[in-house]
Specification:
four-stranded parallel beta sheet, alpha/beta, 34% helix, 25% strand, 8 helices
């Protein structure tokens, strides 16, 4: 009788990866970690679980590895972990659809991972949004501040209270984001770095049951 595999795309070095591997074993599943560098997750070796080295930015490569695994195992499920970048969840959703497994909607995840698209969708849904602009170069950055008005806040750069602070950021943009998940044998180019600038919104920030007065940029 074929075993049942539980596939983990990448891992989590601080607890969740280990817990998922152990939980899979308790359910009688064989956890298999697919990662660009499986050795970075100490628990993989400690738990003696299977691992496969694969380019996790390449959807076709992930599909091939899962297909090879399915020749020996019944694939019971697929999950994944992310660091600063959450596009791995979209890859997991695409894998689940390819193998007819329950999983997240990759289109929704990709929309959620794009802060600019988030704001567009929220505005279309009638949610009040602070003014925002998308900048691709230094000229766009300067004009965005002029259109929105200071102070301006941006993910990655923080709060800029005056023209001098904002000017410091016009000579560079954030590092390029992780490349989009490649598929169908194509290689997607690195996305050009972009900066999302937003007007400062005053209000209360809610964390659990605590309310603290603060000022923030209304990041979704």
């Amino acid at each position: 009788m074929a075993g049942r595999a539980f596939i983990l795309v990448e891992g989590h070095p601080r607890g969740n990866g280990l817990r998922d591997v152990q939980a899979a074993k308790r359910l009688g599943l064989d956890p298999t970690t697919q990662s660009a560098d499986p050795a970075q997750y100490d628990y993989v070796a400690a738990e003696r679980s299977e691992s496969i080295r694969v380019d996790t930015d390449d959807l076709d490569a992930l599909i091939r590895e899962c297909c090879q695994l399915s020749a020996t195992y019944d694939v019971a499920g697929i999950t994944g972990f992310s660091g600063d970048d959450e596009s791995v969840y979209a890859a997991v959703g695409k894998l689940c659809r390819h193998f007819n497994l329950p999983g997240p909607d990759p289109v929704s995840i990709e929309r959620c991972c794009d802060q600019f698209v988030q704001r567009q969708l929220l505005a279309e849904g009638g949610v009040p949004m602070p003014a925002y602009r998308l900048a691709a170069n230094a000229t766009d950055v300067e004009s965005s501040a002029a259109e929105i008005g200071l102070p301006v806040s941006s993910i990655g750069l923080g709060l800029c209270r005056n023209a001098d602070e904002w000017a410091e950021h016009t000579t560079y943009l954030p590092k390029p984001a992780r490349p989009s998940i490649r598929s169908s044998g194509s290689s997607s180019p690195m996305r050009r770095p972009r900066l999302l600038a937003g007007a400062l919104a005053a209000g209360a920030r809610h964390r659990g049951l605590r309310d603290a007065p603060c000022q923030h940029s209304g990041v979704a």
